[in-house]
Amino acid sequence: MIKLIISDLDGTLLSEHKSVEAAEIEAIHKAKREQVHFSLASGRMHSEIAAVFQEIGMTGHIVSQNGAFIQTASGQALRSAYFEPAYVHGLMEAGSGFDVLSVICAFDRYMTPSWSPVAEKISRRMFSPLNLQPDALERLGLDLHCSKISYFGPMQELLRLQALIKSTYGSKVDTFISDSDCLDAMPSGISKGSGLAILLDALGLQREETACIGDSFNDVSMFAEVGHSFAMAGSHPDVMRQAKYSVSRVAEAVEWVRQYNKNQ
Q: Which InterPro entries does the annotation name (predicted)?
């Protein structure tokens, strides 16, 4: 029996208006009544994901900032991961050579050292505001800790920057294309997949008891941790090849899980 479904947010559960449609909420609650629990994993902050759970009308396990933070539905923290300050300085310096907006992500806030029209645009699509923090780099390791750096810009620039980070840091920094205009840099070994593995271990769940749904490259690591993986139909072909199934919406995957359980 599949006991847990974990879903990505942007491009997966959230509509183009950044909300959860009624059909998705209905499907999730139907599954919950059948003892199939629902969790969320996203590059977004914990508070943003918690707001989505509030919209759905339930609580659940949360894997936030691409696996940097893991918290159970009961509030137990399973992981908190941060960059060493020297890496943040280097990664921010790398971003300054490209036509991108570099955002420092802490557990509870997004920051950028300088403001621009692009920063204003990005801030409007976040559930939590993007804050101007000119002294962010000076405060690293004191009262500020960075778990992720997000770069926003044209895909061609992001791919060039990704190549530079890989050549400079090798396996010491992991990078993921997490949206059509976003590249995330993470501490080594920190991903949604490693976060999900920790969560499943804490819950005592096996691979075959878990399903996940995603649409981007930062979701691929989750596909490897579960027995039942679903890529959204609009995903990049390289993402779709890593999943067992393809669906047009989360409700479709949830219904598949319900039928699978009934046939067991």
A: Cof, HAD-like_sf, HAD-SF_hydro_IIB, HAD_sf
Query: In angstroms, rounded to a whole number, what is the distance separating the alpha carbons of residues 108 and 245?
Result: 34
Tokens matching residue 34: 């059948």
pLDDT in tens, 181-194: 999 999 999 999 99
Dist. CA 90–CA 99, nearest whole Å: 17
161-207 confidence digits (pLDDT tens): 999 999 999 999 999 998 889 999 999 999 999 999 999 999 999 99
pTM of the prediction?
0.92
Q: What's the pLDDT band for 17 if we cut at 50, 70, 90?
A: confident
pLDDT of residue 141: 87
- In the numeric block, the tokens 């909420």 are attached to 25
Distance of alpha carbon 230 from alpha carbon 222, whole angstroms: 10
Domain ranges of the chain: 4-80+190-262, 85-187
Burial state string for 177-204 with b = 16 or more CB within 10 A and e = fewer than 16:
bbbebbbbbbbeebbbbbbbbbbbeebe
- Domain 85-187 belongs in CATH node 3.40.630.10: no
Q: Are 122 and 101 in contact (CB under 8 A)?
A: yes
| Domain 4-80+190-262 in CATH 3.40.30.110 | no
Q: Which two tokens stand for residue 219?
A: 């979701």
